[in-house]
Amino acid sequence: MENITFKIYSTIATLPENWDEVAASNHFLQTPYLQVLEDSAPTNMECFYLGIFEKDNLVGVLLSQYLDLNKLKSFGERDIYIKRIVRNFIFKNFASHVLFLGNNMITGQNAYALSKEIEHECLSKLLIDCSNSLILYFKNKGVKIHIVSFKDFYKQNATLFKKNDFKNLYEFNAQPNMIFNLNENWKSKEGYVAAFTKKYRDQYKRAHKKYNGVIEKELSLEDVSLFEDRINELYHYVAKNAPFNTFFLADNHFSTFKEQCRNRFKIFGYFLNDKLVGFHTLLLNGEVLETYFLGYDEEVQKNNMLYLNMLYNMTEFGIENNFKKIIFGRTALEIKSSIGAEPVYMSGFILHTNSFLNKYIGKIFQKLEPDLEWNQRHPFK
Q1: What kind and span of H or E run contains 6?
Q2: So what's the pLDDT on residue 60?
Q3: Is the Cβ–Cβ distance between 291 and 328 less than 8 Å?
Q4: What is the pLDDT of residues 36-92, one digit of tens each?
Q5: Nearest one of 261, 276, 282 to 223, comparing CA atoms
Q6: Which of 38, 63, 207, 252 is the most exposed place for a label (fewest CB within 10 A)?
Q7: What b/e readout covers 211-237, taking b as 16+ CB neighbours within 10 angstroms?
Q8: Above pLDDT 90, what percent of the chain?
Q9: Domains, the chain
């Protein structure tokens, strides 16, 4: 550990030249994506980029995000009124300044990338030290960080972190990440559909029949710029009806993403009678396809089973482009399982900087976490 140090950067322009080489294993720790965050982060978010050095050599990169929840008008409007009021009061007064070590905008293990192995004993201490430095940075600006969250670790990494400097942190498992490990024998959508049981093959046929009249089109950068107001309108409808939100995307987010990341970011529009009625987005991350934000017109969604057809289209894109798995994220668990995704539980770690409140962080967190009841579907023979 004596040879391992870190440095905090607040702008992409100041990053070391070999940053992208070190971040080679994850496109969403590389500078094109980080530039998206810098140019179009949510209005209540501030991003930091941390370089991990062994002596003078950059051997790791880390993303951190600060969220000011005081700037949000709503945390989500789907939960019952009383629960929403209580949750909003607690967040505004005791948890409004949140520091994430990791990416709060993408589901999965995207906090850091390393060009050489660093033992978890060292890495866990390093993450704690990084968070303490950022807490001090904000303290010097007159901002008190309330909550620190170390976000999204797969079970093996979480277990190793827990044995070291994370042992006194509260470990939580939020809603599972729905992941679809694609069968390598599927070469086209026909192979995928043939693997369904009759019940789910009938569901596929019924959804496509309802889909009649909706036209899907991949959008170019020019298209995204042209339709951006409508894209944002559709996005906000879905986002506001989620059970919980800590941010809302900037109005220029999708066009900025497309401009910076080009073919690594795909956005597909859905048109009915020449009107944009829905969209979904995909992140191409090596052999992994990651779903991102989407939006839709509620009436078209109901009448044309638009969301389910989006899920099928994402899956078929993954199969036809030889991806090994698709990350579907944490929402709509049951319907995602009906198309083949399976739940993978990931761990996060959280602490409150108030030592008294931190004693009860587990009980508080459980009260604030949205209720979850769902039945996993098993669609294949």
Answers
A1: strand 4-9
A2: 98
A3: yes
A4: 999 999 999 999 999 999 999 999 999 999 999 888 765 444 445 555 555 565 665
A5: 276
A6: 252
A7: beebeeeebeeebbeebbebbbebbee
A8: 83
A9: 4-174+346-368 (3.40.630.30), 178-344 (3.40.630.30)
